[in-house]
């Protein structure tokens, strides 16, 4: 199974592609989609959604794991991220790729076993679980790879006998 992970953002959207066979993970590719503040928000959101669809097609993703919106104080900074998530959900629905949204707490718990893990702890576990030589950079790409691992962990736990 190939999973596309997405860490949504208007300026930088992290993405990561991970393979999973039910027992082990392997990294396929990762990076970021950058947009320019000189472009309209409409164009930026469209570009991100189209690039994510192209990545899913290129790598043959069968599922998408995306970090859901999270904000504590400033809702205005969350609104552009929500627009990116909405455009991505629409795009993936148009090609029948299921999207699974996870809270930051769920991702941290799935990757480190601790819901309140620090960012560096999550990145270090991504490195270890994917057998990478170093922590993936930029941070948004590492977060997207963590989203993939979260999906695999949740998917595997659903398949266990009860």
What is the fold's blueprint, element by element?
Layout: E1 2-7, E2 12-20, E3 25-34, H1 41-59, E4 63-67, H2 75-94, E5 99-102, H3 104-112, H4 119-129, H5 139-159
Please describe what this structure looks like:
With 162 residues, the protein is an alpha/beta fold. The chain has a single domain, classed as Nucleotidyltransferase, domain 5 (2-Layer Sandwich), CATH 3.30.420. The chain contains five helices and five strands, in the order βββαβαβααα. The chain has helices at 41-59, 75-94, 104-112, 119-129, 139-159; strands at 2-7, 12-20, 25-34, 63-67, 99-102. It has a five-stranded mixed beta sheet with strand order 3-2-1-4-5. It starts with a strand and ends with a helix.
Summary?
This protein has 162 residues and is an alpha/beta fold. It has a single domain, classed as Nucleotidyltransferase, domain 5, CATH 3.30.420.
Percent of residues in beta strands: 15-25%
CATH class: Alpha Beta
> Helix fraction?
40-55%
Low-confidence stretches: none
Relevant terms:
Nucleotidyltransferase, domain 5, 162 residues, alpha/beta, five-stranded mixed beta sheet
